[in-house]
Amino acid sequence: MKNIPQATVRRLSLYCRYLEQKEREEQAYISSQELGAGIGTNAAQVRKDLCFFDRFGTPGRGYPVGFLRRRLAAILGIKGQSWRVAVIGVGKLGGALVGYGGFNRQGFEFVALLDSDPDKRGRRYSGLVVEDSAGMETILKQREVDIAIVTVPAVVAQRVVDRVVVAGVRAVLNFAPTTINTPVGIQVRNVDLAVELEGLSFFLINTKQADHH
Amino acid sequence: MKNIPQATVRRLSLYCRYLEQKEREEQAYISSQELGAGIGTNAAQVRKDLCFFDRFGTPGRGYPVGFLRRRLAAILGIKGQSWRVAVIGVGKLGGALVGYGGFNRQGFEFVALLDSDPDKRGRRYSGLVVEDSAGMETILKQREVDIAIVTVPAVVAQRVVDRVVVAGVRAVLNFAPTTINTPVGIQVRNVDLAVELEGLSFFLINTKQADHH
């Protein structure tokens, strides 16, 4: 399963979420057309994405909603699986992420909060205390952290990720607006709010210009 | 400029950020190899992306760092341009976004905070007071909001975006974990933290399985 494109994995998450909704509405089967429309893609893409894994559909009836949802959750590793998460850099954004309840429900459990700022140490978020990031390597190893969420300033992000990788963490969700380099076998996902806002800015400025023609 | 792929626009943001760094380091020219490596792509991609707009490079010397950075900032609409932003749903995440200082520097100015929860109304974030979202359409129009950041629960997100669009806002940054449908001419960008975490989960579960072989 290692050669699945990231875009496919992303759509699997979206299918999963849409199927949850349909399950709540007690819909038994769903066509690839409907599933595609639900997440903004087409039927051919849905069939192609699901073919990476298995044959799920029944000709003429579509996919069984509950079964497909459970299979996708298992494929994504969010069913009967718990991931241990550390937040490094507990500023406003880091604190908000810990406080957001949605992750726990999906099997992501916060087990460590680290910050280099003495003023932030000792603060509590959802029952966890902010600890000194000087002890990062030891803490990440002892608590068997699977995923590090990095919300530190851009200038120190690479150094922080280097230390996270040394501590044996293989998955990083990076919010720092910079490019992070890691060795093979480590996955970094970037959530770059500035990039998204600039994308909207680009759209606005170009469609505005179009209005003047 | 309307047929530029979103992936290109995204890379323009990353080039811009990397060039800022090189400008601070007082580097005068940069090759497409170096610029590509800086953001994790290759020289051919850099040349292809920049060709959409203009000929920037000088054969044998590469691109002039400061000039290219300023041109890209202008293309992205983040130079000498200010965008008026409203946050709808001022929970933990919404509040953290307003408090984050980075956006202002790039020309994104918060002008309205709206929430339907009476308990949240009257709270202050960075000098702005949370107002009743019942008056959303009027407030968004009067303050000439360009971009709406939507951080409401998934079940109400579509309804909120429908109202935002009616109020004349054409760009939406959606944090609600759901698919939003909008008319042509409106751009929605999704920041889905659960999708990113599930992508990491998928990576961990599949590489773990690989370890057992």
Description:
Two copies of one chain form a homodimer. Chain A has 213 residues and is an alpha/beta fold. Chain A is built from nine helices and nine strands. Helix content of chain A is 46%, strand content 17%. In chain A, strand 7 (147-150), helix 8 and strand 8 form a beta-alpha-beta unit.
Radius of gyration of chain A: 20 Å
Greatest interface by residues involved? A-B, 65 and 65 residues
Biggest sheet strand line-up of chain A: 5-6-4-3-7-8-9
Number of strands of chain A: 9
Structural class of chain A: alpha/beta
Beta percentage of chain A is 15-25%
Write the element-wise H/E pattern of chain A from the N-terminal end onward: HEHHEHEHHEEEHEHEEH
Estimate percent helicity of chain A: 40-55%
Task: Report the average pLDDT across residues of chain A.
Answer: 87
Q: Strands, helices and their partners?
A:
Two copies of one chain form a homodimer.
Chain A: H1 6-24, E1 29-30, H2 32-39, H3 43-51, E2 63-64, H4 65-76, E3 83-88, H5 92-99, H6 102-105, E4 108-115, E5 124-125, E6 128-132, H7 136-142, E7 147-150, H8 154-166, E8 171-174, E9 187-190, H9 193-211
Parallel strand pairs in A: 3-4, 3-7, 4-6, 7-8, 8-9
Antiparallel strand pairs in A: 1-2, 5-6
Helix pairs in contact in A: 1-2, 1-4, 2-3
Descriptive key words:
213 residues, 7-stranded mixed β-sheet, homodimer, alpha/beta
Brief synopsis:
By secondary structure, chain A is α/β, with parallel strands linked by helices. The first copy, chain A, is built from 9 helices and 9 strands.
